[in-house]
Amino acid sequence: VNSDILIERYVNASIVLLIGAIQYAIPALTRPDLFFAVTVQPDFRRTEEGRSIQRSYRIAIVIHTLIALAITFLTWVPVGIFWLLAGTGIAYLMARKRVMPHGVTPSMERETSLTPDRGRMPGGWLIHAGPLLMMLAVAVILRMRWSDIPPRFPVHWGFDGRANGWAPRTILGVYLPLIIGAATCAFIMLIAVAISTARKVHASGSAGDAEARFRRTIVLILAAVEYTIAFAFSFVAFLPLRSDPARQPSLVLLVGPILIVVVFAIIASLRIGQGGSRLAPVAADAGGRPAGDRTLDRYWKAGMFYVNRDDPAWLVEKRFGVGYTLNFGNPRSWIAVAVLLLFIAFSTMLPHWVG
Amino acid sequence: MPQRTLRIDLSLHEPAYEQIVRSLRSLLVSGEFEAGEQLPPVRQLATDLGVNHNTVAEGYRMLAREGWLELRQGRGATVLPRSKPRPPRGSKDDFARRLRELVVKAVADGLGRSAIADALAIEAASVRKEPS
């Protein structure tokens, strides 16, 4: 087997292992009173039935990960990843089906803080402006060294290391990486703003403090992603200025920072848990009912998609995983999805138009 | 309850806007807000509490009618310096009657006299700053 193909297979096997490991860990990262996206009493997961459900789910995850790894090495890579996603999805749905009879009605209490700084961006605006300023500086340098850029330069390389995509020395050809990078950073910044002002499950007490810390961490991870993107696109924008522009650039510089952010995000998730649930003990609301995420089970389709037209929130906590998801009953969520898809389509097509 | 936390319970029979009014009025009476401070915009508070915008807007309008808030388009709700209103005729008797009903209920539920007296003292003390 060609060494390039072998490297590609090892990279894909790492992705398969990472997805499998995350799926394995997720039940331990969710809020204790949300088990496989069903509202339960916080101690249900420690009962015999709860342990049995989690054990069966994890065994299934391990088996599907091993099968996916074998497929990745023996046959076509996308089949392995597809197998893993389908297998873990089925394992999740089967576990959820077993939990549902144990579901309870959550508390209907709602609370919010009225302090003026409640929606302030963690880290401040300056930290999010940094990546944009970095790319602006790169743009200025490229403008100053415009005459050093070859009239036609490579922008894409094949697995054999030879250039197979080219761009001309035009405004769009030279600045395209920076334009896409800046747009991506701006989009992530909007996500950070949305998370900063999203509804809190707990606004007071130790659970409220833990949730605030969780939110700060998520926003700071997003800021780190912005810097990674700014660095990667600045790196690509500088490629035409190298002494030998046709030489394939080192991928380590591009992939390294991304890996660091991914590892940090995983460690933070393991330590903090969804909504800060691993930092503070869970206290039931008045009446002994679990707070869950303060949404009702019936609005969650398969426990993954929140659809509630009567809820004005458009961003809510995920029930199975770490982070946030959209309320698909809110028209603003669909606008956000449309903007994201348009952006992805635009940034995929634009390089072809330029070339 | 920690300061400046607004809490409602959607499972109660009491409408959500009345709970918002009651909770906010309690904070305003306790002097938690200075005159001129802004309350969260209607849309934000509605999102945080998971209720309709009209529910919060109605609550703000009720507090504005009571003289606690000033509502302006685009500026949200501002806390007003509220002077002590002249109590309506019979309000003292009405308050005494409602308080007696509460005390009787508490005694019927098994609360002792000292526990009731302590609770009343705490509530009276929580009104930190009586309007002048």
Describe this structure in words.
The complex is a heterodimer of chains A (about 350) and B (about 130). Chain A contains 8 helices and 9 strands. With about 350 residues, chain A is mostly helical. A two-stranded antiparallel sheet of chain A has the order 1-2. Chain A has a two-stranded antiparallel sheet with strand order 4-5. Chain A is globular. The relative contact order of chain A is 0.13. The mean pLDDT of chain A is about 90. The two termini of chain B are about 25 Å apart. In chain B, about 20% of the residues are buried. The longest helix of chain B has 18 residues. Chain B is mostly helical and about 130 residues long. Classes of the chains: A mainly alpha (about 350), B mainly alpha (about 130). At the A-B interface, strand 3 of A face strand 1 and helix 2 of B.
Described by the principal axes of the CA atoms, the overall outline of chain A is globular
- Distance separating the two termini of chain B: 26 Å
Low-confidence stretches of chain B are none
Strands in their spatial order, largest beta sheet of chain B: 2-3
The number of helical runs of chain B is: 5
Number of helices of chain A: 8
What Rg of chain B do the Cα atoms give?
17 Å
Q: How many strands in all of chain A?
A: 9
Helices and strands of chain B: which structural class? mainly alpha
Specify the biggest β-sheet of chain B. Answer: 2 strands, antiparallel
Distance between the termini of chain A: 32 Å
Number of strands of chain B: 3
Question: Short description, anyone?
Answer:
The complex is a heterodimer of chains A (355) and B (132). Chain A has 355 residues and is mainly α. Helix content of chain A is 57%, strand content 9%.
